[in-house]
């Protein structure tokens, strides 16, 4: 068995390059989007309804494109054009928000950014899966997600430093073009894995029925879990209710992202040895416990910090393992489409999950909302045990 350091060094250059790309891209993104509500309200005179319209349309467009681009990349057996184009469009659109004089322009830029994400996400994940051996998938996806989460820590810190130095919001947005340019040039250096003549090119279609039954069951189980996994904005709202000062909320979120970044690689690599299901089930059970804790009215502010650190560990245990399990359950020639269905399942479930969570919170109680999320996680864990074959466990 290789030591962790040796296993990381053995990963192909493309895995490290994709990790660097995600780190820089997420840093650029997090320099802009946490400041968007302030920019829209303070400089463009737009309110929460406009923000909701922008985010809803943008995420809907992104979810559908993730499936289309995955199927298309399988058909062409090429992922790099989608990755280069997707990151390039997103970086340009994100930077142009600085030139906005009305909320409609922000909407167009945000839509273009999500179009870029929709184009790149599934082909990129397929490229990552094809670049490594099956026994390295957990480690590879864990490293990639770890570097992505590191960018989520770096971006807000850079933005805060620039604002603290006296720069205006528009100037900070223009500065986000610098890491976006680094991302674009890095994508040009990506290489496709060697083509496999034995891999059959799938027909271009949208039918889920052509995938293995185990993969379809996995998507159904993920959909159930996601039904109880509402927007993370509810976690921040609850933290504020439980006494965390407003000034500490960004630090609380950065701490959670940092914990995820540190532990994603070793925990995802553990799935290569112990099995994906074991790690995912453990993470989902921990998620249920965290949600029940946050729903408890007697939780103190220091307990919120503990819960958010634990939430970072939940992310670390599941994000890489979930994607690696997708690659385990489908043929290599269908990886792009499979990741498209994976991303679509997560995206489609987010809207009803958030609406239902908010309705339970307002109509019944905060405990009812968080208990529903915990219940979905526990039921999904049970189904993962009894309904999914033990692939690579």
From TrEMBL:
CDD domains: MFS_MJ1317_like
Compartments, record wording: Membrane
Family matches, as InterPro entries: MFS, MFS_dom, MFS_trans_sf, Sugar_transporter_CS
Domain Major facilitator superfamily (MFS) profile: from-to ranges: 14-392
UniProt membrane topology term: Multi-pass membrane protein
Broad class of the protein's primary localization: membrane
Transmembrane segments: 82-106, 171-190, 218-237, 249-267, 279-296, 302-321, 341-361, 367-388
Keywords: Membrane, Transmembrane, Transmembrane helix
Domain of life: Bacteria
Name of the protein this chain belongs to: MFS transporter
Species per Swiss-Prot/TrEMBL record: Lysobacter yangpyeongensis
């Amino acid at each position: 068995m290789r030591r962790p350091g040796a296993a990381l060094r053995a990963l192909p250059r493309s895995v490290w390059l994709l990790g660097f790309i995600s780190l820089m891209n997420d840093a650029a993104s997090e320099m802009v989007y946490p400041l968007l509500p302030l920019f829209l309200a303070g400089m463009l005179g737009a309110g929460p309804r406009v923000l909701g319209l922008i985010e809803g349309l943008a995420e809907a467009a992104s979810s559908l494109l993730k499936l289309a681009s995955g199927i298309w990349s399988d058909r062409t057996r090429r992922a790099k054009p989608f990755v280069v184009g997707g990151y390039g469009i997103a970086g340009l659109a994100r930077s142009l928000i600085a030139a906005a004089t009305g909320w409609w322009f922000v909407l167009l830029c945000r839509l273009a950014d999500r179009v870029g994400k929709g184009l790149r996400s599934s082909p990129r994940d397929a490229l990552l899966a094809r670049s490594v051996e099956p026994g390295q998938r957990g480690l590879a996806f864990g490293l990639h997600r770890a570097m992505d989460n590191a960018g989520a820590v770096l971006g807000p810190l850079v933005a805060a430093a620039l604002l603290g130095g006296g720069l205006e919001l528009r100037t900070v947005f223009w500065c986000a073009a610098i890491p976006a340019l680094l991302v674009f040039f890095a994508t040009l250096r990506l290489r496709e894995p060697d083509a496999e003549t034995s891999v059959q090119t799938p027909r271009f279609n949208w039918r889920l029925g052509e995938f293995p039954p185990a993969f379809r069951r996995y998507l159904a189980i993920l959909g159930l879990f996601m039904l109880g996994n509402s927007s993370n904005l509810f976690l921040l709202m609850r933290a504020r209710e439980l006494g965390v000062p407003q000034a500490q909320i960004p630090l609380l979120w950065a701490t959670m992202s940092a914990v995820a970044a540190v532990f994603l690689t070793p925990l995802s690599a553990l799935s290569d040895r112990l099995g994906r299901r074991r790690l995912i089930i453990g993470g989902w059970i921990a998620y249920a416990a965290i949600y029940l804790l946050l729903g408890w009215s007697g939780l103190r502010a220091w307990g919120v910090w503990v819960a958010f650190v634990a939430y970072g560990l939940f992310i670390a245990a599941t994000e890489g393992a979930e994607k690696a399990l997708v690659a385990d359950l489908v043929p290599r020639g269908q990886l792009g489409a499979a990741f498209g269905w994976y991303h679509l399942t997560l995206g489609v479930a987010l809207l009803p999950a958030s609406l239902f969570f908010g309705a339970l919170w307002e109509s019944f109680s905060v405990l009812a909302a968080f208990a529903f999320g915990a219940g979905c996680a526990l039921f999904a864990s049970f189904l993962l045990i009894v309904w999914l074959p033990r692939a690579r466990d």
